[in-house]
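Researcher: We plan to redesign the surface later, but first we want a full-length starting point. Tokens attached.
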């Protein structure tokens, strides 16, 4: 009559599939969290110490530490303190050198 042939009874597509999980459940464990390194904090502290002897190094260390803090998703306040303090120390050093040169002439 025009119907397609059927397979033997009882042999379907396989066992019925499980229902989907309720909303808010499932999804697995997600990605593992990155371990937080203490390197950016150490770089920031060294940058703050560099205010007194080599302010350009404080600026560089502060920027490097800030990038590492942001990559880890952590607050970068101490790194900002390091590079901003390095800029202030550099500016004060330049002004101090100019004043000394003017006073010597």
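Model: Full-length starting sequence:
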């Amino acid at each position: 009559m025009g119907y397609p042939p059927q397979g033997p009874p009882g042999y379907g597509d396989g066992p019925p599939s499980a229902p989907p999980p309720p909303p808010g459940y499932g999804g697995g464990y997600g990605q593992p969290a990155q371990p937080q390194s203490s390197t950016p904090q150490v770089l920031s502290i060294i940058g703050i110490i560099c205010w007194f002897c080599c302010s350009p190094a404080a600026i560089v260390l502060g920027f490097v530490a800030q990038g590492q803090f942001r990559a880890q998703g952590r607050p970068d306040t101490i790194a900002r303190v390091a590079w901003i303090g390095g800029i202030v120390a550099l500016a004060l050093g330049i002004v101090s050198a100019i004043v000394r040169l003017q006073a010597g002439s």
